[in-house]
Structures are given as structure tokens and as C-alpha cells.
Amino acid sequence: MEDIFTIHHRDTKSYARCGELKTAHGTFPTPMFMPVGTRAAVKALDPDDLKALGAKIVLSNTYHLMCRPGEDLISQMGGLHKFMGWDGPILTDSGGFQVFSLKNLRRIEEDSVIFQSPYDGSKYTFTPLRALKVQEKLGSDIMMCLDEPLGYPAGEKESQAAMDRTLRWAEMTIKHWDQKGDKLLFGISQGGFYPQLREKSAQDIASLGFAGNAAGGLALGEPQDLRISAIQASLASFPLEKPRYLMGLGTPLDLLDGIRLGADLFDCVLPTRNGRNGQFFTKHGKINIANSRYRSDPLPIDENCKCRCCQNFSRSYLRHLYSNREPLFPRLASIHNLYFYLELMEGARLALREGNYMCYHKEFYNAYQNGPQDEAF
Amino acid sequence: MEDIFTIHHRDTKSYARCGELKTAHGTFPTPMFMPVGTRAAVKALDPDDLKALGAKIVLSNTYHLMCRPGEDLISQMGGLHKFMGWDGPILTDSGGFQVFSLKNLRRIEEDSVIFQSPYDGSKYTFTPLRALKVQEKLGSDIMMCLDEPLGYPAGEKESQAAMDRTLRWAEMTIKHWDQKGDKLLFGISQGGFYPQLREKSAQDIASLGFAGNAAGGLALGEPQDLRISAIQASLASFPLEKPRYLMGLGTPLDLLDGIRLGADLFDCVLPTRNGRNGQFFTKHGKINIANSRYRSDPLPIDENCKCRCCQNFSRSYLRHLYSNREPLFPRLASIHNLYFYLELMEGARLALREGNYMCYHKEFYNAYQNGPQDEAF
Questions:
Q1: Of A16, A120, A185, A282, whose CB neighbour count within 10 A is largest?
Q2: pLDDT of A228-261, one tens digit each?
């Protein structure tokens, strides 16, 4: 396999770097944020919207698509790209997080998870090889190994067991992986919130020779300091020359810290989900549009933002739409928030090219933390 | 006031005509369909979407905007056009239909309706002059008089009383109407399902000299034949040279019949509301996407349709979105259905220019009625 990942610049004051990643459906710059299209659709946005926002890759979910509408149907319809009308790169998460979130509906065995579909109660047996097979049928460009993430808190023994199982599953997956064309397979490391386990898991996963390496099991309720040390321990143990994916994170500040610690790829539901719940992200903090102080506010969410929402609509109008549950609201909120996240990444790449990433990081932190911090409902 | 309405062609085999209507926010061709943006937003679509679909005028609702967010707030924000980001013509319905639908929440007095807001229980007194005042504050281009529509069935005496009250209210409204710039005021005729009352009401309303005349109180549960004769009796009694607005209708066939009987303007929630409920309109009938026969159907809703939904997505994908209540679904369904309605009007205008409207009418009827007639849920 030719080199799929090129690093153009490395920061001298942190582990941050910028580069580009080549996939079967196109090359995109890193660091990059991936909008989440869980069920083969980013909520309230179509592929033309995503392109207009500057999205270069979207994430979808193996587990959800396997349950509904099923990988065979998507394959029969020409694969996930054609099905959802998106011709750019697609990364599919394996579904480990979703399956392990089912709690009462699943049973973990050594090499499989048996679970009941929350959609219709059907029983599924999910194995590392099934997760791979489903992703191959979907035709995703970047496939993820099945892993076992644990939320916070989890004991050391439990974290060790989940990490060992995740490693064994990764070994099984790469052994059965039949590399075709430019399709990529990434491994996922775990290790809970124990830096030594994080390091060990990352080293073990990296040693298997995946095209890229991910750190999973984060942003699951842990305090900020534990998160940072877990990220640090994971990413520092991955090889420099391969892409690093920090799964499921996070707030704008989480993303900037992730980049500082050497991450290249991110995904998170915050911009779309919190958007639907009335929360807008800006360089000057967070705005909850339900707040009555925005009732007659003629300003856009952010006067300097170039997104279609800010170019056309006032806070007053957005509050009206939100208060009356107008279906247009989730669309406009998602447009602003995704634009903001994608622009945050673009700013980071530019700062990396210009060699001043930590200034960008610091300036963003200061402005963001000094602004309003309205929470989402 | 200069001539705002120009008729370019009149059909020789029916009462149909095509022309153009000039408003303070632009001139548009007729016959025309107006997408419904009840609360200052067409459900799930933004103004750029509407422009891309070819919409030339949108309808909004006085009653709803008066309750939420209030006409004073909208006026303070620069008027309805600026508030909702739509710089084309806006027609506002008076809200008579909505107020009279409240049943248990309202009390009709001679010159007013007292009602409780279904939003928050606040008490409002709605009068013909209040309806006018609110619309002036909103800045709508075409304002409608307050009327009293009755649903089907309604007795002759009751219909006569409502029609008399509607006439008195129309007289009060036009008397207090302070014509400014190119703003237009339309009268609304009633008369239930009694052709003689319909004729009388239409003549009386027309005699007051409004810029345009509307027939209201239709598509409220009446059988097709009663509807047709009520439309006929109303429209035929309006002067030829003024625009005629057939309120709240309807199915594609209703629209073509309305044009045949001389209507120039239409509005209806069917394309957006039924779209949200899974129903797509096509030249070959109606499709309910929930039907299992579309599960693995790779075709678009209509192979010959040029809308963004049909150009990009299969029935299979749309069914998947609908079944999983993805917020993208209402958007795509509304895009297709509104495109279809607007194209239906464009086809009618073309046929009128070419002098073969009744052929267009007949061909459309045949193809539409011979296709599937899946109902919406």
C-alpha cells in the first residue's frame, strides 16, 4: 500500500501536525472534523449542504446501519456512498460504543456480543469479523475494528479486561482483512483512565500495523484532567507517521487540545445534537437561543461568521423558530455549528502551516472562555 | 393605484387565464402557488431553498404571528421580510380560519372574536381592524380581510349569517385601509356550499373595490361536486380584471380545476404537510414512501423530475429516512412536493400561453388518476 498519509508541518511547541489523508473517495487535509451521519444522513442536512459547509469526510455507524436498513440492502443499492448521495470519503465507526451502551440488551462473550436490536427486538450476534464484513459491504473508505469502550468510572481490572478483549478482536480483524484498493482499516485502542493501560493498549494496537490508529472510550463522563492524560498517553504511543483519530470528541476546546496532543481526525455529535437543542458555538462562547435575552436581539449568532445562518438570520428569528419547534431550526443550528467546527479546524491547519499553533490555541481559549457559556437544554 | 394585475392570455375553452401580479416586493406570473410558511418559515426549508425551487411568493399567517412572536417584535426586527430572510412577495392570511377553528377557545361577538391563545392561554380580542393593523405591522404585500369561514356541513341560515358578518367586516376593513405604496388588500367571500349565497357574497365583496378577491371556506371536508360548484359560483361573480385567490386548495387536481374556473392564486399545506407524512405527489399519482414495496426500490420518486430530491436520492433511501424519522426526510419530501406543485403551475401557464390549457388539464388528470393513489398516514 502506498503512503496514504503525508505530514506537511509539525509544530515545534506541541505534538500538533497538519497533513493530508488519501482515501478511495478523495484526499483531505488534516486535522479534520467529521460531521456525524449516524443513519446514513447528517441530521437535517443533505450532501449539498455538507459540501457548501466545507465538510470533506462524513462518519456513519456500522451498528445502526446493520440494524436499519441492513448492510445487504445498502450494498444492493450500490453501497453507502450512492445510498446517501455523498461521493466524498466515509468513515464508519464499528458500533462498539453503541452495542456496549445497550447494557440490559446485550451479553458479552469472549469473541462476540449478543444483543437485541432496540429498533425491533431482533437478536444479533456481533463479532469482530461481522463488524468488518458489514463495513466492507457498506463500502466505507475508513473502517474501524470492533472495540469495547468502557465509560467513566471503570476499575483498573475491568479496563484491563476490556482492553485485552479489544486487542484480541483487533488481531482477529486485521488477520481476516482482505485489503482491496485504497480502503483503509483503523485499529482502536482503549485502556480506560489509567495512563499505563492507555500506553500499553496504544502500543499493542499500533504494533498490528493498521493504516491508522484511534483512541476510543473517551468523553464518556470523565473529568477533564483524566481525559487529557488518557489522550496524551494514547496518542504519544502511536507511530508518528500514521493518522491518529480521537474518537467521539468533543467541545471546541477538546478539539484544540486533541490537536495539541497529536490527533488528526475527530468526530462528535455536539455541533448537530446541541444545535438541535438550541445551543450555538461561537468564538466568543456558547449561546443558548432559548434564553429570553435573545428575544428581540437583531444580531446574528456571530457577526463575523460567514455561514448561511449568520448571513441571513437574527438571534430573534432563531429563538422564534426554536421556541415554536419549527423544523427549519435544527437545520439552521446545524449549519452554523458545523461551519464553526470546520472553520475551527481550518484555522488550526493554517496556524500549523504558519508555525504558530499554540498562539491560535491560546487566543481561541481566552476568547471562548471569556464569552457566555449557555448550556444546551 | 396603477394597474397591478395584467392578463396576458385567456383560455377560449374555460375561464382560465395567465398574467402577472405586481406587488411591493416584485412581480410574479399567475396562476401561482404559494408555499405556506405559517409561522414565518416554510417547514424545513429556508429562503434559499424556496428560491431554488422557483417559489415567487410565500404565505404566512397573521393569527399565528400575532400569538407568537407578536407583530410588534417582528415590526421592531424590521418587518416580516427581514425577519424571515425572504425578500420576495408575502401574502398574509388574516387568521379567520385559525381563529374559527379554535371552537371551545373562542367567542364570536358582532364585530370581534375573543379567543384564548392555544400557545399559552393568553386572551386576545381579534377584530377586523386588529387583523388589518397586525398585517400592516408585519409589512405584508398582500393583506387579507378577516372573514368567518364555516366548515362542511353548515346550514343555509348559518352560512348566510357568517357571510353577512364577513361582508360587514370587509366594509369596516376597507374603510379603515390606508393605502400605502404598492401594498394590496384583498377581500374574502364566503357563502358555504350554497351557490346562490356564494354568488351574492362574491358580488358584495367585489363591489367594495379590493385590489383582489378571494374565495374562502373551501376544502373543509365537503364533497368534490359541492366544492366545484361553490368555486364556480364564487369566481364567476368576481370581476375579470382583478386577481382571484382560491384559498387553502388543494390537491393537484383541485388546482387544475381552480385554474379552469378562473383562479390565479393558490396556497395549501398539502405538499409540505403530506410530504412530512411520507406522501409524494407525482404526475403518475401519489406515492406513500412507507409502503414496503419501496424498500429496495433504486428509482427516484419520479424519474423525469428535475428536483434535488429526485436527482440525488432513491425511494429506498427516502423510505429509510422516513422509517427512522430522520430530520432530513421532511426537507427532501417538501423539496420534491413543492417543486412538483410549482412545476404544475408553470405547465399550466405555458399551456395557457400556447392556447391548449384544457389539453394540459385532461392529460394531467388521466396520467395522475391512472397511477398509484397511496394516501398519507
A1: A16
A2: 999 999 999 999 999 999 999 999 999 999 999 9
How far is it, in rounded angstroms, from Cα A303 to Cα B30?
39
Q: What is the pLDDT of residue A216?
A: 97
Contact B24, B12 (CB under 8 A): no
SS3 B216: coil
Among A182, A219, A91, CA closest to A144 = A91
Q: What is the pLDDT of residues A120-153, one digit of tens each?
A: 888 888 899 999 999 999 999 999 999 999 989 9
Number of H helices, E strands in chain A: 15, 16
Distance in angstroms (rounded) separating the CA atoms of residues A194 and B156: 82
**Which pTM was predicted?**
0.97
* Chain B residues inside the 8 Å CB shell of A317: 40, 77, 83-85
For A240, other C-beta atoms within 10 Å of its C-beta total 11
Q: What residue ranges define each of the domains in chain B, with the CATH number in brackets?
A: 5-268 (3.20.20.105), 275-370 (no CATH)
Are the Cβ atoms of A324 and B68 closer than 8 angstroms?
A: yes
Rounded to a whole number, what is the distance in Å from the CA of A297 to chain B's nearest CA? 8
Q: Is B190 a residue whose pLDDT tops 60? A: yes
Q: Which residue has the cell 377581500?
A: B187
Per DSSP, the three-state class of B153 is coil
Q: Inter-chain contact A85–B43, Cβ cutoff 8 Å? A: no
Identify residue A231 by its one-letter amino acid code: I
Question: Which of B320, B326, B335, B338 is most worth mutating to test chain A (most A CB atoms within 10 A of its CB)?
Answer: B320
